[in-house]
Amino acid sequence: MATDPVHAYLQVKRALQAATDRVVKMVRTIQEADGKLRAWDTLCITNCGVEFPGDMTNGRKFDAREWPTAQELAKALVAWHDARRDAENAWRAVQAGDRIGLQPPA
Questions:
Q1: pLDDT tens-digit profile of 72-84?
Q2: What is the helix (H) or strand (E) element at residue 61, kind and residue range?
């Protein structure tokens, strides 16, 4: 039995959205860190295996466990590109008359 192209497209579109959400979350974390690092002299990074001076522990903090590694970010970006390619291919497989009410991959 052949796979319904509309159903297949909707599945890969959901996968693309999940990949997008993952990258956006990582980027927001990096942007938040960037904002805090602009005043680096008052920033305490927690959960990184380094002890900051006691007078800094009550100030501005950034939890190192929230920061993605370069490898995690790279994997998320590759997964997004793969999901985007899959969504574009699935979109092309949907006949024009069956695209009514569907949105192409963004």
A1: 999 999 999 999 9
A2: strand 60-63
